[in-house]
Amino acid sequence: MKTTKIDLQKLQNEEHFQFNTEFKDLVTRYDATTLDIETLFENYLRLFAQEDEALQVIRKSTITGDLSVADEDRDALFSGFSTAIKSALHHYNEANRTAAIRIKVVLDQFGNIARESYDAETADIYKLVQALQNTYETDIATLGLADWIIQLDAKNKVFDELMKSRYSEEASKTGYRMKQVRVAIDAAYRGIAEKLDALMLINGSSKYLSFVNELNTRVDKYKLIIAQRKGRNAKATQKSDSTTNTNQ
User: Fold this and answer.
1) Helix, strand, coil proportions of the chain in percent (round to 5)?
2) pTM above 0.90, yes or no
3) Contact 182, 7 (CB under 8 A)
4) Rounded Cα gap, residues 41 and 37, in angstroms
5) Contact at 8 Å (CB) between 48 and 24?
């Protein structure tokens, strides 16, 4: 009886963490001291906590105060532009009132953009600016609000670039950290598996049989996940090559 080997490097981050979660829970249920792996498991738990923390950072992606300031800037411009349109609805000049009515219809379609999530607001402001600078360019010119649209577009682009750089910076940091943690926890897991194999060889497998059977069942499940992904990737590559050859 031996523990089934698995290439943990081939698991994606979420899969890798879930595998380790299941392994941790399994050892806890059977008791590390009873399995004679207490010291190794204590080190493993420390590394597990580090992987958990690194994954949480990747999931959440830290957004700092400078993004909030940039968001407030574009919200203020959008609010000011909306107020200007509402005022123009009561303009003494009929042409201005008519232009304002058409722009108000567009604004109503988008709703309160400032209440949306960061990414949704960025996308909607972009679409709004495109509409106002193209389809409703004449109405905007009539109302003398072209500079408002230019400024709203500029502030939105500043926010978008800041968001992209923040995501890139955080992803780079946490991605590197996750890679390091995964290497360490994989080594810790292999150390535990190898010790169990040695203990079963020396002491016999009866004491460890139930635990190792359950562990191997879980390992087989994740090996299947890896194999299925490999198969899908191979099919996708084959299809792509076939399409390329057909088009040549």
Assistant:
1) 85, 0, 15
2) no
3) no
4) 6
5) yes
